[in-house]
Amino acid sequence: MDVILAQPRGFCAGVVRAVEIVERALNIYEPPIYVLHEIVHNRYVVDNLKTRGAVFVETLDEVPHGAVCIFSAHGVATTVVKNADQRQLQVIDATCPLVTKVHSQAQRYVEQGFELIIVGHAGHPEVEGTRGCVAGPVHVLCTPSEVMTLRVKNPERVAYVTQTTLSVDDTSEVIEALTKRFPKIQGPALSDICYATQNRQNAVRQIASDIDVLLVVGAHNSSNSNRLQEVGTQARIKAYLIEKAEDLQADWFANNPIVCITAGASTPEVLVTGVLERLQSWGVFSIKQMTGEQEKTTFKIPVNLLREQAV
């Protein structure tokens, strides 16, 4: 078979920052270090940090009084921040700056008297964090049909924000439906949606007509990884979401296909390497690196963590 490596793929700047925050905290403080929710949606990353002393919890009640606690990249509700303060936890916030920006937008709209709509998947940690950072009614939806059945108090005072792990393409139809139903609706520019999600989907679309099989390396609970698989399916190619090389099945490649490997924004490159090595053991004729968007975005480490490291 022939293999093409998508570009860009794998870790985005927000994930790089979040993982580095946990690693630095483990070096500065004596383990265990507590992390609220999975730092990013990838089992390999989480398990690796566990072996180094990170303890992942689902509620702050599981964190000892006064302990070091890291908030995941997906962000948290205001009540969680207050609870952490009451428990005198040493909080390090690994929330992706793009998510923090959405929180600020949501709060600003609500303060201005708008009824808030979140375009995203209900139950996703990021969406729940955004929902919990504002007071008042919040609507969560992700399809145009949901827009048509939505009931609001004042159709002229409505605003929306979006889940960052969706792309412009994921949200455009919903935003179009919202604009059509509520002509005066307020919302951020489409450029505010996560650059990494859009770039990875664009790369798959660009190569789709030249390949037979798409392999998306990522977690099954990763929103952006699932969207990548959907892009492949929509292009009518065989698209598989796998977490590791061991998930590969030889019969997927029986007819000497052209295979593209991409990876979700929370997937480390070591997993892509493992998948490539497994394919090579089955017979690879050529490996090419796709030319694509070069991502140069970086996000700063929290000041309080840098200060502790300097001491």
Written account of the structure:
This protein is α/β, with parallel strands linked by helices. It has 3 domains: 2-11 and 195-289, Cobalt-precorrin-4 Transmethylase, domain 1 (3-Layer(aba) Sandwich), CATH 3.40.1010.20; 13-97 and 299-310, Rossmann fold; 98-192, Cobalt-precorrin-4 Transmethylase, domain 1 (3-Layer(aba) Sandwich). The protein has 11 helices and 12 strands. The termini are far apart. The mean pLDDT is 94.
Sheet with the most strands? 5 strands, parallel
Total of DSSP H or I helical runs spanning 4+ residues? 11
Radius of gyration over C-alpha positions, nearest whole angstrom: 21 Å
- Supply the CATH class of the largest domain: Alpha Beta
Overall shape:
flat
Give the low-pLDDT segments: none
How many domains comprise the coordinates?
3
Strand order of the largest sheet: 10-9-11-1-12
Question: Mean pLDDT score, rounded?
Answer: 94
Instruction: Tell me the CATH topology of the largest domain.
Output: Cobalt-precorrin-4 Transmethylase, domain 1
Helix content: 25-40%
Work out the number of β strands. 12
Q: What is shown here, in short?
A:
The chain folds into three domains: 2-11 and 195-289, 3-Layer(aba) Sandwich (Cobalt-precorrin-4 Transmethylase, domain 1); 13-97 and 299-310, Rossmann fold (3-Layer(aba) Sandwich); 98-192, Cobalt-precorrin-4 Transmethylase, domain 1 (3-Layer(aba) Sandwich), CATH 3.40.1010.20.
